[in-house]
Amino acid sequence: MSILSLQNKIAGFLNCKLDCNSGHLSVDGDAQKLEPMVHQFLSLLIQHQGELVSKKIVIKTLWPDKEPSDDTLRAMVKKARKALKDNARKPRYIKTVPTKGYLFIPPVNLVSPGPKFWWQLHAKLVGSIVVLVTSMLLLLLWYTLIYSGASDIGKAPIIKKTELSVLKNNDVSTHYINKVVNNVWVESADTHDASQIIIENIEQKSQQKIVFPAPLQRKFWYSQGSQRLLVQRIDKQSFYAITFMAQDNEPVINEYKTSLPSDSEILALDFTGNMLFVALNALNQIGMFDLENSVLIAPALLPPALLNISQQMEQLLEQDENAIPDLSVQIWPSPVSSAFIVNLSSEAHSSLIYYKSSLDEVASSELTLPNGLKSGVWNTRGDRFSFTDNNAGLIAFQAEEGRLTTFNTNGELINQVVADCGPNCFVISNTQGMPKLNEITFTFDALHNETGFNLNVFASEQNAQVIRTNLMVRNESLPQYTQRGLYFVSQHNDSASILFRDNKNIESTLYTFAEQASVEELTIDADDSLIAGIVNERLFVLDLNTLKMQYILLKFPKLSHIAFSQALSSDANNANNESNSTNIVFYAQSNVFGEATNARQPNGLYQYNINTQQISLLKENVKAQVLLALVDETSQGATRNQGLFTLYDNDVASVNFQSNKPAIKVNMLDCISCWRIKGNYLYQLQPNKNTKASAQIVQTSLLTGQQRKQSLLFNDVENHFSLHPSSNQMVLTSRQQLQTQLTKIEGLSQIY
């Protein structure tokens, strides 16, 4: 076959048109400008339509002066497929022939564009004139705004806040039902073995109760498109569907006597109210369950979009074979069509994936979310999906444009967004409560024998977890166990104090700070003689023998990861035997002059010597280091392994051994007080602040890198915890006496 000439041609194939000169591609009416490399690659394949184009020719044509890596080539081919909405598993356009090359599948029709008018032939001149006129108009507009609206400069957008309700039930969900905001929850009915659903009209301050003759689960699912709410019986033998009619105050109630497979989890109810998105946990796949016909859709009949999501889940789970899968999936169906949003998230990855239709083989948009996705809602038109992230930011995904915009909330606290009430209007919820210390029996077995590492995790009580706390009205945080007892910080009114509770449960106040003090970190030395910490961004040291407080002035903007340590050097071999009470190590972020050298200091791990008052840099771009003495009992006898644990500022940790044993790498959470090292293990607490999911403890072997997890049996845990040095006791902080405040906020402005 002869090589096709593409100069001044429009290439048509299937539902696509490519302007071979400009690189503009239209797929199913959606136009885009191709990247230059992708344009060259498609042009090369089209020129040889129906013929195999070898990998060597592709590289020689696109990279004549260098040899690209296989990853670079694969990435470019992936971009081309994405532009064409092609599927590598079932290609319609580009077929990859392993080890040989690429084949362009569909026939190509080349046509010349129609005759050009004068303005087309002189496009550059016309463009220059347009730019000049536009610039003059913009300059005139700027001048007008500056001199006619100078009084408005500096004014922040006015946000209107309307308090809607205060809820003391943590299982309440808020939805738009018949264009009115309603709170919905499940509770026990007065009748024995019965439940009722409460629907509270916030605007009218009225309630509607629907009583069911069976106990119901507290979790339910709502389809905005069909105005249908679905709830399941506790015995999982049937579902009740409540459909709210626009013209009738009485909802229609149907019962579906069916049950889901035991290994499945309901994710969402689609816009028709008849199909359930479900996670098939045993298969790590997404499926659909037809309520009307009481059947799980066979994998071969699933829409292409769900098959693609399952494939992505499989790929993410295969990235680290040694790690316990921590992948979570959430789905938000559109209220007006079969479109939907998917969030795939793990410790190291979070993405937003948008499908315009479940029948699409390729996602319309896929965006990485650096701060995760916490809660999300569609607007009533189905063209905007708004969500909060883990930094309490409010972000909107514009579905048609495939881009993210951020709202300027002027410092307003937004934990969850529960409803979209207009262009710049949202209903938000903030859950607040009193932080209290909770002591529990540690849920992992205490064995350090690596041969038993794969045993199932067990709790001290198989049927319950015993939690001990006190009833004093005060905030409690930053717990630190030692052999002598428990140190922690208590906040009452505007006063903050350091308290100590000995092993006989007797409390004493060690030190009370001045008013308006905020204690951010706390650590105790090995001899129980000194306490160090951060209060109001200042480093302090408290002598426990004399109860004398010393504030240490360091000219660093941000300090964290305070610890007592031996005088560490860059490796464990050079550690000296100086008492660990002499030195305080900390991570400093510095963009100003450091006190020690009066010169600009890099970010990294610093050491402060209490006796000499000298500061020295231990390691750049490092947050923390811990000397390790690990005991490996898998071999004959017990082998001791000396090592150094290093936490870098990209939140990746490594364990480097003095022997030839390979180093261990661990992905860490971005927090300060949520990890501890005890024995051979690193423990990390995954909190669940303001979510309904359970918190988890992650245990990582510092000898092998293997991980396992255990859920904690209570919610709303914060990222402070401590492990007793010689027993299986654990203390952590959770919020009690919770209440959720619903607020409507209007007048938000978009930053970009």
From TrEMBL:
Gene Ontology molecular-function annotations: DNA binding
Transmembrane parts of this sequence: 125-145
UniProtKB keywords: DNA-binding, Membrane, Transmembrane, Transmembrane helix
CDD domains: trans_reg_C
InterPro entries: OmpR/PhoB-type_DNA-bd, Sig_transdc_resp-reg_C-effctor, WH-like_DNA-bd_sf
PROSITE patterns reported in the protein's UniProt record: OMPR_PHOB
Gene3D superfamilies named among the record's database cross-references: Winged helix-like DNA-binding domain superfamily/Winged helix DNA-binding domain
Transmembrane among keywords: yes
GO BP, sorted A to Z: phosphorelay signal transduction system; regulation of DNA-templated transcription
OmpR/PhoB-type domain residues: 8-106
Keyword Transmembrane applies: yes
DNA-binding region range list: 8-106
Domain of life: Bacteria
Name of this chain's protein: OmpR/PhoB-type domain-containing protein
Species of provenance: Glaciecola punicea ACAM 611
